[in-house]
Write a structure and sequence with these properties.
Blueprint: H1 4-23, H2 28-46, H3 56-83
């Protein structure tokens, strides 16, 4: 991972901020968008299934992780739709 000393605080801050906004229903739509962005970036960085050539079980595991993250993004989009971006 390039520049982990910068990526880690940004990732943690976006997870905490987005989660707290959704949890307390205070600008939950914006919090859900923050979490969608984090989930997309984390999926691209950590679940690179297209680079796995030698181990088919590991590749399937990565693809299952991608589809799980798609499900999480679908729920977050539902939160955006229900709450809107601004109260």
């Amino acid at each position: 991972m390039p520049m982990p000393e910068i990526a880690l605080p940004i990732g943690l801050a976006s997870q905490w901020l987005g989660s707290l906004l959704v949890l307390f229903d205070y600008y939950a739509g914006i919090g859900a968008l923050i979490l969608i962005g984090f989930t997309l970036v984390a999926s691209v960085i950590f679940l690179r299934w297209w680079k796995i050539k030698d181990n088919p079980f590991r590749r399937v595991h990565m693809v299952v992780g991608i589809f799980t993250n798609f499900a999480v993004i679908a729920v977050l989009l539902l939160i955006v739709e229900m709450n809107g971006l601004v109260r």
